[in-house]
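Appendix B, record 7
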Amino acid sequence: MNKVGKKGWFYLIAVSSAFFLVGCSGSNSPQKNHGGTFKFCSKNRIHSVHPSLVSDKSSEIIANQIFEGLVKLNPENLEIENCIAKSISFNPKTFTYTISLKENVFFHDNPCFENGIGRNLNADDIIYTFKNICTKQVINSGYHNTLKDVVKGVNDYHAGISDNISGIKKIDDYNIEITLHRPNGLFLKRLAGLNFAIIAKEAFEKYGENNNVGTGPFIPAKYDNYNDQYVLVKNTKYHGTDEDGNQLPFLDSVIVDFEYGLKDQISHVVNNKASTVLNLPYKAVKRILKEERQKFDDTLKMQNAPFFATTFIEFNLSKEPLQNKNLRKAINYALNKQEITYRVFGETRGKTGDAGISHPFLPGYKKSGVKGYIFNKTKAQALINDSSITTKSFQLDISSDDYKAHSIADEIRFQLEENLGLNIKINIVPERYLKEKSMYARGDMAIKTVTANFPSPDGFLNIFYGKTVPKSIDIPSFPNTSRFKNKDFDRTMDRARRSIDEENANRSYAAAERLIMEEVPIAVLWYEESNRLINAKLEGFPLNSIQRIDLSQVYYRKQ
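Structure tokens (predicted):
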């Protein structure tokens, strides 16, 4: 069995292990069948796919099929590879990247272009995108977490001191230079993030936040209201080819359903009406392996891997009772996370959230001195007494789409009442409303999940970066919805992002994480994993630890 991540992460019961397979093509590549539809169900509605506004995994999956950046992460090994860029070279003396663009990349056909025909992408589009990222926008973390203090001239452009970014220069229509202040070991990995997908000026000026015009392998079609589906169709002018020179993508279309429950999703894959079920709970995995055993290998495959995501309770630090650090620490000590994890996964190994916010299996990251919180009722009660709080009633918001949070909400309520005397009211709300409520600091506590954009602690810690938090709660704050502010933390994060290599960056990230766990703006619950059921004839669909889904090379194996 192929596994992603550290050895020994997760094993099913012995009777099922023979059927627990990761979908990968063997040494003899199967014959590729062009055409067909990739169909799956999303737990969230797709509200915006514009790169700088995507804030949930479902929208990210769709946006990554529509938009592309200069580089991307290989979906198998998560290494950097060229995308819109044809070649990239680095001059270590001047800290300059010279990037040559492919000359056959076209934006999707759309009325925003002359005669509705998508034009050729060029160097001006790269510069326009970077300028757009560096403007002062309500929701736009690309500047702060990647470009600020790293690329020459971006700070002056962001501040309005200059009309141009001095470190980004056009050589000609298909060649640009990006100059850094100093070498930065994570720079290209950051450019692979959706934030840095290239957009067209014409599209953004016409559609603004509703922009869905990219260069990717699939084009968004009109929303199908009758079937309640989001439909993408094949981009016949796509620039990509596979290693054998075959034109991509192979699929004709991608369909996202919204209204099916988990049982229906599983049934659709089992009966060949859908391609995959994403994020299966452990109990569902065991049931499928038992009930559909005869269909594995020929009809079905199951995939499993660590998923670099962490689920936690977020505290609203704009509210007085939750500004009390003793109260926040008391809640952390009062939670029996092993019991919670067992209820979610059916076992606890490698999943209990007792080692900080970052996922414990991040490669190359040593969490030096990072300490989590292990259940200790005596400490919890001492801290709640020291807090001297008068308010003991709080609301815990949960997304209506988060089945894992639903399964443990009552357990969290019971534990905090039993161990601290807190009165917790569970409030289940639609995902979109939960995000809005969090951004405007209207709640008390909420169960959230943070996901890494690439294998680094940065994505876990970025949600606490305070320099993007507005002074007024009338202005939305994202991704820092807890509104945590700490100058030492921000300085440490800035130092990590300016580091010349990943090793130095990780030392700074560890220092930042130690500070977060001392200040406790959150209570870590568990570390995620990925389980998904797929059609056995589906190929080119690897499972990775950040759930980066690239459908450009997905195809159905011929009979």
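Remarks on this record: Confidence is low (pLDDT under 50) at residues 1-27. The first strand starts at residue 32 and ends at 33.
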